[in-house]
């Protein structure tokens, strides 16, 4: 929420950072910061898989379907291809579902570092619970029924549930999921490649991790609660507008059909 899909850079752009932070840990802010420091686009997998180009949406659905059942060498190579093709032209990836596939991304990009945004458990869960409350309302699926994004979201949600169960034993992001995720990273990422970062610390520690100079501009801040609620409202308004349009179409069809039948009845 709160950010538009990004366009890939030229072929051959060096991929440098696996953004492994769980959602609502400052991933959107880190996205902006990395695009400045690494001078290239960051692939936000949540945004790209739900609102990006159709080919990105389909590839992420295929990735999420294949990852939990990739048992053979051929399956792993197919998964490697899908990940590398969807991330071509980007300097980093961010957010879920990519963050849940850190070991798989490390296999594709062995030279990349793993950078995990984190925050206190209490503040993270307040933010995550707020977002869950927005997205979990009973009426939202009905209101956005005619929006294009809702079509892919139904498939995306099922695939993401499969990823969550496979990786953490949860079918969605729960209060204990962030801890499970961070414990998983400690278990699978070599210590020398795993870096922890809190976006409240600003430029200095991030620039030290990346080995780049501190830029002469304010540190970005993206996707706070008001941003999330703004995007939620935009989806509600767009969904209601789509319903008005569809009802107008149905009304016109019924009117002309009724008129035609009356003429034939005379």
TrEMBL record:
This is NAD dependent epimerase/dehydratase. The chain crosses the membrane at residues 236-257. Keywords: Membrane, Transmembrane, Transmembrane helix. It comes from Apiospora marii. PANTHER family: P-LOOP CONTAINING NUCLEOSIDE TRIPHOSPHATE HYDROLASE PROTEIN, P-LOOP CONTAINING NUCLEOTIDE TRIPHOSPHATE HYDROLASE. Pfam families: Sulfotransfer_4. InterPro entries: P-loop_NTPase, Sulfotransfer_4. It comes from the Eukaryota.
